[in-house]
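REVIEWER CHECKLIST
Item 1: Sequence provided? yes
Item 2: Single chain? yes
Item 3: Sequence as submitted:
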Amino acid sequence: MIDKSDIQKQLYYYLSSFITESRKKKFEEIIAKRTRYITVVLEDIFQSHNASAVLRTAECLGIQDVHIIENKNTYNINPKVTLGSAKWINIIRYNDLANNTENCIFKLKKTGYRIIATCPHREGYTLHKFPLDSPAAFVFGNELEGLSDIVINAADAFVKLPMYGFTESYNISVAVAITLSEIIDKLHTSSIRWQLNEDEKYKILLQWAKNTIKHSKILEKEFLKNYKNENNNQI
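Item 4: Structure as written out by the authors:
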């Protein structure tokens, strides 16, 4: 039986032969710092500038997955803000059910994430004291209403960002940047195994290669045809 993860790995090796050595080295450096131990969830964000700034921040800090809940508002990406960052991360949208928030939370908890609500009006952990003993999904609400009651009630913990002025909350893109910067720095200096596993790495590397190479679909089709012939039509 053909191992699908082996196919992905071999396909990446094949496609990477069409990539410059400097770009491959950059891929290797970045994939080593990618993580799914921490993820970001955005609930009903409607301002495209802020929504796009979050993607850029997440990518810069090595977050591989961003989960987008679309109940009332469609999540629009502004390419002038993201500067191409969206093509290097996985954007998972929840927009096809009556209650997309419940669906997102259920799936994240099922895969082992704690739901962490970022809420300025709830007592919770400071970022400095937040425990990283298990994977965490940090959920951020929209600019006007904040997080829904569904998120609040389902939360396993709360975090509260430091604020010393009169204004009650940060702009969401700033809140995400403050949170991720502190948490990722803390994660990198810990003894926690936060890196991607080998299968995850090659799956992502393969996607990056496809995003980089012109006519990658043609090259992939050629590779799979040859691979199939070499392995007696077993794919």
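Item 5: Key structural point noted by reviewer: The mean pLDDT is 90.
Item 6: Recommendation: ____
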